[in-house]
Amino acid sequence: MAGTDRSRNTALGGPAFILVEPQLGENIGACARAMLNFGLGDLRLVRPRGGWPSDKAVATSSRATEVLDNVRLHPTTAEAVADLGFVFAATARPRDMVKDDLSPRQAASRLRSLTASGTAAGILFGREAAGLGNDDVALADAVLAIPANPSFSSLNLGQAVLVIAYEWFLAGTTASDREASKATEPLGLATREELVGFFEHLEVELDVGGFLKPPEKRPRMVRNLRNLFHRAGLTGQEVRTLRGVIAALVRRRKV
User: Fold this and answer.
1) pTM value?
2) Domains of the chain (ranges, CATH numbers)
């Protein structure tokens, strides 16, 4: 426990770290430890393979109980990010999706700006063996990739969380930077719940209209449409307006 002073108050905050189907309790514990090292407290788990709670996570967390005691479980990735206004997907794999691709340092600066403006944000991390699936990445606004040796770029889950948590902490060490960031992000970004509701509304009507065909191409078409609207950075009001537009067009079609 070198370097730990339990007599000092623990200030936790920052973006949510979402682990999608983590396979090992030890890795969850390592992630919790890394988060507490750098003042992060919002850890969310999507279908952890070993179940929850986990004795192995506790054993490897070095008593990061402030994080582990507040872990939130979710049955789906969509539910885990429902309350967030901006989401990064941590992935080293190239995708057939057009999204901003940021380094940990760039992402940390963006996250500081978002949180300063009152926008809840988070980062998705994938399974140890396979990473994030395309449907998980499609829920994100941008991709976060950790630069590494191109011939050996696979990082342990705990290592990836540590790098990003460190950059988050470092980006907040200068008060003037935090103050300057407050004016750089729009307020009122739509949450994932609002966006997914809009996506599903649009996709239902596109199915009825015969646009999402043939069936084998539908998943990719849906991801492309979702990515298009993610890049727009829609506010909650804009999402409600677009849903009104869809409803008006459907009513006109039925007349």
Assistant:
1) 0.81
2) 16-181 (3.40.1280.10), 192-254 (1.10.8)
